[in-house]
Amino acid sequence: MISHKIVLHFPTRIVNKPIVSKLIRDYDLEFNILKAQIIPDAEGLMVLELKGKQEEYDRGIKYLKDSGVIIDALSQNVLRNEQRCTHCGACVTICPTGAFELNTTTRKISFIDKKCIACGLCLKGCPPRAMEVRF
Amino acid sequence: MAKTIEEINEKIKKGNVVVFTAEEIIGVVKEKGLKKAAEEVDVVTTGTFGPMCSSGIYFNIGHTTPRIKLGGGKAYVNDVPAYAAYAAVDLFLGATATPDNDPRNRNHPGDFNYGGGHVIEELVAGKDVKLEVSAYGTDCYPRKKLETWINIKDLNEAVLFNVRNSYQNYNVAVNLSSKTIYTYMGILKPDAGNATYCSAGQLSPLLNDPFYKTIGIGSKIFLGGGIGYVAWHGTQHNPNVLRGENGVPRRGSGTLAVIGDLKQMKPQWLVGTSFMGYGTTLTVGIGVPIPILTEEILKYTTVTDEEIYAGIIDYSDAYPNMKSSVVGEVNYAQLKTGKITINGKKVPTSSFSSYSKAVEIASTLKDWIKTGKFELTKPVASLPGVESGYAFKPLKERPVNGKV
């Protein structure tokens, strides 16, 4: 079983097509929608976490690409280098999904990987550059 | 019953000195009362860990064969320009220096991933760094070029000398414009999308000694993981700012110039730091012990985050354009809840100073004192105080040749 977070860009012409529902129905994949921004007559953006067997996953990705979806940052993972993090807290208000939480007692910052949508803002917003991206 | 530093040091040598951090002392005094606590407590330790831009090192690389004169020439350490304007083999490297023409910085907002602060961190960590020099050959210093790896172990002297550190309070930054801005107070989102602050608050050295009664020139301190000393008042030292009734400044006020042997410092307390769209700097760990000589001095160390106020400044307009207007005031307890209210709007807050690291520094210094490793010093001179009339002035521009 593998699990990947992927960013899908839907060009305007396919925004109205039921691509994601077909992906889930026809391919044996579990999904978790981390972010969805589908505006009619405009480009759509979705960040999906897809889980399944490698074979099914690969077939699913191929289907998406054949349907015209642009897939960004496959298997992109944002990690925190615990040695470099100084727990300053600069990241807390940079992150759009609240993936950095301040513990008001210890004053230390937790990075909640589950909430991360790999937007990359923290990579350059972190002063000691403790955030890294791994493909 | 006034104590003396000599008496306190005797207790440190004997191992029965009573020390608390500036956070712990709040509870201790609440419990025992000021009078009793002042008799019992000998030292209160403070700490701070935040970006401090006016930081740098000077170092002596040792002479080459044949000799070379770096002074007056050009020197680069890992492609970061160093200041070659001292004697033959003395160099200065500042935290905010960045490589000439770094493509990553060329387009605004640049990355500023690497600069002087990062070189300093690498040196302290024992890494080799590349030194490249071009010099004016003289009869006594004939060599014109040098390219060599250097390591902190091999340097004669390597001294951390920071001309402005440990700010006594600072601004809270917001952005009231409609575009994201990139500042030394971080990435500020439009329409007061976030607010940033940078102070250790109730743990901060000068906020625990607001009138500089104990901290002065020659004060021995925790600096960068090792020992350092207060060398002078820092640049932009400004004792005469708005203060609360408790004497605590409500704006950025006093500063310290600090010095210490880089060779006994540690990289986790001198961290190369990047601010996107702004530049590089060095995050410095500083801890100052406050000898509890009188009740009054103890009272100042009991200051809490709730009692320390800072001014909210608009960094999109007021700050760059030298306007003195303040959007409002807020205290550090409010800032630390994670949200403050500005003009009726709830604004999330972010810190650049690490409070947990400040706690670690104050605790480490407390440990050093308790185990007899660190004795306090009596300052040889005071920092300019409120009565001195010392003031921080803006530049009075006087155009050269009548041109602006």
What does this structure look like?
The complex is a heterodimer of chains A (135) and B (404). In chain A, 19% of the residues lie in helices and 33% in strands. Chain A is α+β, with helices and mostly antiparallel strands and 135 residues long. Chain A has 2 domains: 2-72, ACT domain (Alpha-Beta Plaits, 2-Layer Sandwich); 77-134, Alpha-Beta Plaits. In chain A, the strands form 3 sheets. Chain A has a 4-stranded antiparallel sheet. A two-stranded antiparallel sheet of chain A has the order 5-8. Chain A has a two-stranded antiparallel ribbon with strand order 6-7. Chain B is an alpha+beta fold and 404 residues long. Chain B has 2 domains: 5-52 and 161-388, no CATH class; 56-160, no CATH class. Chain B has helices spanning 5-14, 24-32, 34-40, 116-124, 295-301, 332-336, 355-370, and strands at 19-21, 43-45, 48-51, 56-60, 74-77, 80-82, 90-94, 129-134, 145-150, 158-165, 172-174, 181-183, 186-188, 195-197, 216-217, 220-223, 226-233, 256-261, 270-275, 279-287, 289-291, 309-314, 328-331, 339-342, 345-351, 381-382. In chain B, strands 3, 4, 7, 10, 16, 17, 18, 19 and 20 form a 9-stranded antiparallel sheet that branches. In chain B, helix 2 packs across helix 3 (34-40). The interface between A and B is medium-sized, with 21 and 33 residues.
Could you write a compact summary of the structure shown?
Chain A has 135 residues and is an alpha+beta fold. Chain A has helices at 19-26, 54-66, 121-125; strands at 2-10, 30-38, 44-52, 70-72, 77-80, 100-102, 109-111, 131-134. Helices cover 19% and strands 33% of the residues of chain A.
